[in-house]
Description:
Elements: H1 2-18, E1 28-35, E2 41-45, E3 47-52, E4 60-64, E5 66-67, H2 69-79, E6 83-86, H3 89-98, E7 100-105, H4 106-112, H5 114-117, E8 120-124, E9 135-137, H6 144-147, H7 153-162, E10 182-186, E11 201-205, H8 206-210, H9 219-224, H10 238-256
Parallel strand pairs: 6-7
Antiparallel strand pairs: 1-2, 1-5, 1-7, 3-4, 4-8, 8-9, 10-11
Amino acid sequence: MGEKWSTDETGLTQTLQQMKRYAPDGxxxxxxxxxxxxxxxxxSAQTHWVAWSERHPGWEIRAASLIDPAGMARxxxxxxxxxxxxxxxxxxxxxLRIGGNALVExxxxxxxxxxxxxxxxxxxxxxVEVGGFGFVGTGKLPDEAVKRRAPTRKLxxxxxxxxxxxxxxxxxxxxxxTDLEIHxxxxxxxxxxxxxxxENLVTLCGTCHKGLDxxxxxxxxxxxxxxxxxxxxxxxxxxxYAEVERYREFVxxxxxxxxxxxxxxP
Length: 266
């Protein structure tokens, strides 16, 4: 038994060492694998513009870009983020266990991870207006999210119920304060092409809503448990590592057969 464990550990060490190597002139995609605040796994990638969305003139179709592997590895290292390189099924299996950043060889990505690199509809995150960057996927949003600014009664009630009928900033509820007005606010504002969808709406009281200046405040995502960046720039990498840690916990539960936590659990 001891000899078997020794052999397994040697193989694991060799695999991890190889996952820091890449061909400087090779073709790679830069992918990130994590789990958002709702417990849902997601892929993100360095992307390029392909076309404008047919559903919304301000939304884009973007696809994963081939990148300079040395430059990308250096950027991740300088930012303090870990990374691996993925060239074959063995290293891919390891990467799917640990998540995070990866340089994924073009042929392997095309054959094994087509959905992660395929063109997809997205919008610019509101952070771009205040010095940040990034995109938010919109492909799964209903057409109604594009067509109407005001939420339907059903959607408004869905958002209020999700936020426990309280302002996500000050925590006050209308049931406790008879003079309190409860509003449903677009996190990425409508003027910035933000959709009228549950994922982009938060509950605010009238006072906090009127005091919101500028009208885009990414920290509301964290307060409401919504996916997406809650900081304009993740300087300390806290959001990146939280997403990776949630991913590893997600995989750990899947491997152990443990049930997934309810989506609305804290």
